[in-house]
């Protein structure tokens, strides 16, 4: 069973930045497209960004131009750099394969508030 450990969340003011990290215990990480997802209270979990094994990226319209997904296959880690944060970015952030194949981790809370 692959374990996913997300970290890097916190409380930040609007306009601020955070960098999220997600470490996967998978033996084979590099072959999977990975994604960052978020879930706000009372809402469904939605994909925020995806990155393919070769580094191609996709972003939800709501974060395009502000968020950057990247990966380090040597460290089995995927990152999400979040800039120009807005209150509507407040959510619990998770990573997984882009199809959600692995068990979900605990997530990392991002709160954007003044």
Terminal Cα span:
39 Å
* Strand ordering within the main sheet: 2-10-9-4-5-6
Note the overall shape: globular
Rg over C-alpha atoms, rounded to the nearest angstrom: 13 Å
Helix content: under 10%
Class of secondary structure makeup: mainly beta
What about the largest sheet? 6 strands, mixed
Order of helices and strands: EEEEEEEEEE
In terms of quaternary structure, the protein is single chain
Model regions low in confidence, pLDDT < 50 over at least 5 residues: none
Task: Tell me the number of helical segments per DSSP (H or I, 4 or more residues long).
Answer: 0
Instruction: Quote the average pLDDT.
Output: 96
Residues in β-strands, percent: over 45%
Count of individual beta strands: 10
Q: Would you give an account of this structure?
A:
With 114 residues, the chain is mainly β. β7 (67-72) and β8 (77-82) form a beta hairpin. The protein is globular. The chain has no helices and 10 strands. The strands form 2 sheets. Strands 2-10-9-4-5-6 form a 6-stranded mixed beta sheet, with no helix packed on it. A 4-stranded antiparallel beta sheet has the order 1-3-8-7, with no helix packed on it. It is 0% helix and 46% strand.
């Amino acid at each position: 069973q692959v374990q996913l450990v997300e970290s890097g969340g916190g409380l930040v003011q609007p306009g601020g930045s955070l960098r999220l990290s997600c470490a996967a215990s998978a033996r084979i990480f590099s072959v999977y497209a990975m994604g960052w997802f978020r879930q706000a209270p009372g809402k469904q979990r939605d994909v925020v960004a995806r990155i393919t094994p070769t580094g191609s990226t996709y972003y939800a319209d709501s974060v395009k131009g502000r968020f950057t997904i990247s990966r380090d296959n040597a460290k089995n880690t995927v990152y999400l750099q979040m800039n120009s944060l807005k209150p509507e970015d407040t959510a619990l952030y998770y990573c997984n394969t882009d199809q959600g194949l692995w068990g979900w981790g605990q997530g990392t809370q991002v709160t954007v508030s003044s």
